[in-house]
Amino acid sequence: MKNEIEIKIRVPNQTRYLSLIGKIGENMVREVCCLQNNKVSFAHNLNVVLTEAMTNAIKHANAADPDKEVQIHISVTEKELDVRVYDSGQGFDLNSIPCPAFDSDCLNETGRGIFIIRSLMDSVVYRKLKCGNVLEMKKVLK
Amino acid sequence: MNLKTEANGSRMIIFVHEERLDAHNSEELKAEMNRLFAAGSKELIVDLKDVRFIDSSGLGVLVSGFKNASTRQGSLKLASLQTQVKSMFELTRLHRVFDIFQTVDEALDS
Q: Do residues B18 and B25 touch, judged by C-beta distance below 8 A?
């Protein structure tokens, strides 16, 4: 039996939509994903990843411009979860964002978002498109 | 944001009555902590019993409060973390920074 879902959502560039998108992703994993042991934990992690990626798009890539928008594509198959967050801004250099140094920088108030995404997903790529950029995050499920 | 602040002696307890502490609402918690610091409070306890989701922005605001309290020779303690919230502290190693208690009463007794 085929058990795959793909959804595409477009929301205004505003943080008020973080909860909505995060919950959609979380519920999607709960319904579809065939993980046996840690489904609840993984569903929560997807909520975290979507929230962090959207916040990045809204505040940094799209420079908090409320007239811009963010597009989110989520696809889940039995083998892989693929999440893409599209922004329409200037973008940023993913590789220039340092990993938090836990000894000396533990008390930094910012800079943990990309680290969290990288910790919870298997691959994270940010690339420039014709009109904007996309942050693509993948997780192998089997 | 639904916050409730109670005094217990010299200590102030902030109850965060929200399911999420994220980039959308965490600045309001920061403003409440800053208001208490400005009014002379040095010892804060933040109760996260109702919070089932925290992101890097929420963590950053708590770090801000921790640093602000430390600067005043005070403290910011956390209480009643749900499992998923605790896992975010562990992922970012912040569980090594904060004093985390099972309940507000335990934080008050410490």
A: yes
Chain B, nearest residue to A110 by Cα = B60
DSSP string covering B44-85? EEEE-TT--EE-HHHHHHHHHHHHHHHHTT-EEEEE---HHH
Residue A45: pLDDT band (50, 70, 90) is very high
Write down the CATH superfamily of domain B3-109: STAS domain (3.30.750.24)
pTM of the model: 0.92
Kindly report the CATH class assigned to A5-140. Answer: alpha beta
B36, exposed or middle or buried, with CB in 10 Å at 0-12, 13-18, 19+?
buried
Best probe of the B interface among A13, A14, A17, A18, by most B CBs < 10 A, is A18
- Give A76 to chain B, closest Cα distance, Å: 22
Kind and range of the H or E run holding A132 = strand A132-140
What phi and psi, each to the nearest 5 degrees, are found at residue A74? -130, 125
Domain residue ranges of chain B, discontinuous segments joined by +: 3-109
Query: Which residue type sits at B57?
Result: S
Contact between chains at B93 and A18 (C-beta distance less than 8 A): no
pLDDT tens by residue, B79-90? 999 999 999 999
Q: A16–B94: do the CB atoms touch at under 8 Å?
A: no
ipTM of the complex as predicted: 0.92
Q: With an 8 Å Cβ cutoff, are B22 and A108 in contact?
A: no
* Residue ranges of chain B whose pLDDT lies below 50: none
Contact A107 B22 (CB under 8 A): no
Domain ranges of chain A: 5-140
pLDDT tens per residue, range A47-81: 999 999 999 999 888 877 888 899 999 998 888 89
